[in-house]
User: What shape does this take?
Amino acid sequence: MSAVLSARVALVTGASSGIGWETARLLAELGATVIVHARTAEEGEGAVERLVKLGASRDQLHMFAADFARLAEVAELAETVARAFPKLDLLVNNAAVMAPERCTLTEDGVEISFQVNFLAAHRLAKLLQAPLTAAGSARIVNVSSSLHRTASMNWADPNRVKKYSRVAAYAQSQLALSMAAGDMAPEDSGITSVSVNPGLCDTALLPLYGRVGAPAAEGAAAVVRLCLPEIRLANGEYYDGGDIAPSAATVHEARSQRRLGKLADSLATKA
Assistant: This one.
């Protein structure tokens, strides 16, 4: 086992299955202490058991549960992690859900895919600023999608209640996540934050694409590559296949980024 990440602590959200679980596995193999996040304790414990069976040391795995459809649980997760780990080197925002057939609002009043896929990640990054900054050269890797390039932000109705499409809602959540990457790394914080397309993989989200996907481990490898200290990253950029890739124009529009930040803060405040 390589020890390239042996001195680092990584939080992987949505790590109970798919790309998230494979990312946790690869990070553990590289020696990192991995915080395994899952929606429920049962799912998280199952994920940890599978990692241990494949050779991960139980001592390097820490499981925390939080349902991202509840912003209060996102805040509780951040508080628990910050208390247990004063320094956090890596945050992999991977947790995601497929937008349902019908517009579904969470208890916080936000369309569920927008909340789980973007808003929760945005809040988590903000609430973990202290341990991320304390690490000195932390990285945030946001697992996005090429579908973000087909999306547009519905500023007047971000929940898309008036005209809902599950594909449009999901794509908007990925656009927002990619747009927010730079905002997750304040100037002089030492944090670098990027978004990445892991490729079309055989995960729970595959039915949204309607095609055959590659093994989740391939997507995870693309994510983990951006976690390696020898790989230089440009803050706020969108990566695909290990390189900076063309993104939706909105991703780099400063005005739109500021507008999104205000929207996210407003939605979180209302919760």
Q: What stands out?
A: Strands lie at 9-12, 33-38, 61-65, 90-93, 139-143, 192-197, 238-240, 243-244. The mean pLDDT is 92.
